Amino acid sequence: MAPSLLAWQAGTVREALRAAFEGEMSFAEDGLRSGDDAVAFRHYERAHVLGQMFVGPHVRAHVGMLRVGWRRRDLREIVGQVLRIPGGLIGSAIGRVPIGNTGGANVSAFEPMAIPADLAESLADDDGPAS
Known about the structure:
By secondary structure, the protein is an all-alpha fold. It is about 65% helix and about 0% strand.
């Protein structure tokens, strides 16, 4: 069965992965607060790579990208995220996501992508249920 929000909340996901995801989300929020939409979006993309296998984190990353699109009045991003939010929810729930995909409307929603080395380390640390 695919990882889920319950696995995320129940602590079966390694703390390093959860901390990396939450760190990226925090950096994104900092970018929004400071008015730097480019920084915010980049960190939402990184959070997406880390959280896309889990329903809640995956959706949270897409909602963040939608917020940036809205702030920028970027119709392509807004429409892209409105479509990706339910798609991401379903994809994570059934375990079918394009690994490494950054999640923005500027890339195909179905294309796997290379994972940055620092994020790959956090993902590699997620080797199963926490003890």
